Amino acid sequence: DQQVKQNSPSLSVQEGRISILNCDYTNSMFDYFLWYKKYPAEGPTFLISISSIKDKNEDGRFTVFLNKSAKHLSLHIVPSQPGDSAVYFCAARTGGSNYKLTFGKGTLLTVNP
Amino acid sequence: GAVVSQHPSRVICKSGTSVKIECRSLDFQATTMFWYRQFPKKSLMLMATSNEGSKATYEQGVEKDKFLINHASLTLSTLTVTSAHPEDSSFYICSASGGFGANVLTFGAGSRLTVL
């Protein structure tokens, strides 16, 4: 039973355009959500996060939106750059879980020059 | 800040041997570290939670006698794959809480294990 789902295994966008990566979850106990970026043969690096008490968090070119009623979050990257090409993982945590994260399967983003 | 170092990055071993992977938090103390495993085109699967000074907590389906975890200090956790078999070949990644803040895990670069 996959509690965090990233239904798009891949996404391709043109440089300068917006990239939208989607994530759905089923566990209503999740209270904190994170996005990680991963290059091949490397560990994930933290990108941006959002608490369940918010619906938006912005950091430079990256914005995460949370729709609790729909159990859906998305990561917007604008403008997209070729260096953004990587696998993006959505992760979620339940309160009091001692930082234990549940990950989605990831979405491979390719930004074409 | 918030760097987690993982070693070795790649290891090839013969079937039946044991392999140890180290995970170190370089600039912060990590009372809790996590070990993940990633199969090709799959998500990161949590294997176990490693707590300094106590026994690790394993996820369902993970053999604790096969994947030995030791967290002897606040900056070091080790994962030993015992009597490795080809099906243990995978990408193993450790992470630690701290660094960026209470809610964020910092990951190591991962270790690619290939068992011949």
Note the topology.
The complex is a heterodimer of chains A (113) and B (116).
Chain A: E1 4-5, E2 10-14, E3 19-25, E4 30-38, E5 45-51, E6 56-59, E7 62-67, E8 72-77, E9 86-94, E10 101-103, E11 107-112
Parallel strand pairs in A: 2-11
Antiparallel strand pairs in A: 1-3, 3-8, 4-5, 4-9, 6-7, 7-8, 9-10, 9-11
Chain B: E1 4-7, E2 10-13, E3 19-25, E4 32-38, E5 44-51, E6 57-58, E7 67-73, E8 76-81, E9 90-97, E10 105-107, E11 111-115
Parallel strand pairs in B: 2-11
Antiparallel strand pairs in B: 1-3, 3-8, 4-5, 4-9, 5-6, 7-8, 9-10, 9-11
Short description:
Chain A has 113 residues and is mostly beta strands. Chain A has no helices and 11 strands. The termini of chain B are far apart.
Describe the structure in your own words.
The complex is a heterodimer of chains A (113) and B (116). Chain A is mostly beta strands and 113 residues long. Helix content of chain A is 0%, strand content 57%. Chain A contains no helices and 11 strands. Chain B has 116 residues and is an all-beta fold. The model of chain B has no long low-confidence stretch (mean pLDDT 89).
Q: Give the N-to-C terminal Cα separation of chain A.
A: 38 Å
Mean pLDDT of chain A: 93
Tell me the number of helical segments of chain B per DSSP (H or I, 4 or more residues long).
Answer: 0
Distance between the termini of chain B: 37 Å
Largest sheet of chain B at a glance? Answer: 7 strands, mixed
Largest sheet of chain A: 6 strands, mixed
Computed over alpha carbons, the radius of gyration of chain B is: 13 Å
Unreliable segments of 5+ consecutive residues of chain A: none
Overall outline of chain B: globular
Rg of chain A: 13 Å
Unreliable runs of chain B, pLDDT <50, ≥5 residues? none
Shape of chain A: globular
Secondary-structure-based class of chain A equals mainly beta
Name the pair of protein chains with the most residues at their interface, and give those residue counts: A-B, 25 and 27 residues
Helices of chain A, by number, come to 0
Strand content of chain B: over 45%
The mean pLDDT of chain B is: 89
